[in-house]
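ugh ok so i messed up the first submission bc i forgot one of the chains. this is the corrected input, ALL of the components this time, i swear. 318 residues overall. if the numbers dont match what u have on ur side tell me asap before i send this to the collaborators (the ones from the other lab, u know who)
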Amino acid sequence: MGMAGPRDERWLDADAGRLVRPYTVSNGRTRPTTKLDLVSMVMSTGRVHQARLEPDHAQTLGLCAGPTTVAEVAAHLKLPVVVTKVLLSDLIDWGAVTTTSPGPVAGPSDRIVLEAVLNGLQRRL
Amino acid sequence: MAYNDDSEPLPTALKVLIAGGFGVGKTTFVGSVSEIEPLSTEEILTTASAATDSLAGVESKSTTTVAMDFGRITIDDQLILYMFGTPGQDRFWFMWDELSDGALGAVVLADTRRLQDCFAAVDFFESRGINFLVAVNDFDGAFHYEPDEVRAALDLKPHIPVVLCDARQPHSATSTLISLIQHLLSATTSLST
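and heres the new structure output, hopefully the right one now
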């Protein structure tokens, strides 16, 4: 990942710039098939082996060995969030990765959650 | 679509935003409270519209890339809190709906020497109905203004807390997050009564 070697550089010009690479990774697709947000949890199901996947998908799957978030996967891939979502939603479609359904699982008005967070933070002092 | 239907539930990730002007200490704050070295990620936003989640139009010039730092605190085996530092150099992040959607709340860091730098963040959270507090980041140990003066200068509503913090100190930054959560709890109480 992130190895834009000499082979790639001839494809870059001033207008395309850094956007070429993300667009290539996502294979021209513009939308993930599964709705994901920055803090959607994702985790490998263990049902698909990395070795069977193309490098970008394999690396993405490798980052999901334990529960993690879209934001963390994107940070480690060094790819924009939207591109990371495309890769992750492919893996979800293939049964390689599982995710929680998006939406307000815990909103700002959820007292039980807020109190748990409060207690957790106070333990850190 | 294949959402998690396994018996073992995935943890829930929550987010709070750390906002404020450029150079006010957002990344420092995130680093102080995070259990991991802060991570950085970026997103492509189209400047023509607020639409996210789409790469449509990346070949045109109407896009901008915004970067942000974030960290995390594991609360317990079912709750993880993420702190996202909003991109500071520009205001394009205001179009990044996803960054603020679903946020528990926000810390607006203020530098009293450049108080005007946090006006935009205050306006943004007020207009989105996102609860926040203002944390005056003490850079040099000498507060130039009292919290009440900051409140007046920012024209804050009376219920919005103004606290002092030192973003470099984990204890101080964590205490600021605690103040935010307490503020959120009091907001839910006032809603239900």
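quick check: The longest helix of chain A spans residues 81-93. that seems consistent at least. Residues 48 and 62 of chain A are 11 Å apart (CA to CA).
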